[in-house]
Specification:
Blueprint (H helix, E strand, L loop, with lengths): L16 H13 L1 E2 L8 E2 L12 H6 L5 H7 L16 H12 L8 E2 L1 H9 L5 H15 L4 E2 L33 H11 L1
Parallel strand pairs: 3-4
Antiparallel strand pairs: 1-2
Helix pairs in contact: 4-6
Length: about 190
């Protein structure tokens, strides 16, 4: 079937109940039937499941199978959001910055002010948002050191930012000498 003919799901939707039943059967019986096959094939697999949903609440609401929940609930690891692990922000940001440096390329550094701004941000997008902020800063910073003013956070409605506020054009040294068109282009790139 063409991929476009499959119904689309929102990323917030859970796996449909019919597929949950098939997954449970595969886990319980340790076998699957391949598409077009007539006999099941034994599998030796361990399942790792991840979600940002409260599955017990989804079970109670009837959106997630109770039997599958208990089958998957062997060892549960709860990874707190980045905003609750502020001590990890600087090492992660520095690691992302190191990975972005091309061999023989210019090495960029985060200033203490930039790190403080990163640590004060609410991080609604978690580690993925941090990586995107570091990638943008690496691309847009005109100096070897990335300062708080070089950090651009997502401007998504409903997402609070406690980090750097975009400076007025006249006070931002990066914008000195730029035409209105260049400023507008910079804003589009940041957005």
């Amino acid at each position: 079937r063409d991929l476009h003919s499959f119904p689309t799901r929102r990323s917030s939707d859970l796996v449909p109940l019919a597929i949950q039943a098939k997954l449970l059967r595969a886990i319980e019986q340790r076998e699957v039937t391949r598409i077009g096959a007539t006999r099941p094939v034994a599998i030796d697999a361990r399942f790792i499941a991840a979600t940002n949903r409260a599955l017990p609440a989804e079970v109670e609401a009837g959106r997630f199978r109770r039997d599958l929940f208990f089958r998957l609930d062997g060892v549960t690891l709860v990874v707190p959001p980045l905003r609750e692990r502020r001590h990890m922000i600087a090492p992660l940001a520095l690691g992302f910055l190191d990975r972005l440096t091309q061999p023989g390329g210019t090495t960029k550094r985060l200033t203490a002010g930039a790190i403080a701004t990163l640590e004060n941000h609410a991080w609604p997008g978690n580690v993925r948002e941090l990586r995107a902020v570091i990638e943008r800063a690496r691309l847009l910073a005109r100096r070897d050191d990335i300062r708080a003013g070089d950090l651009a956070f997502a401007r998504t409605p409903g997402l609070a930012t406690t980090g750097a506020v975009e400076p007025e054009p006249s006070s931002d040294p990066l914008l000195v000498g730029l035409t209105a068109e260049q400023r507008a282009e910079r804003e589009r790139i940041i957005a």
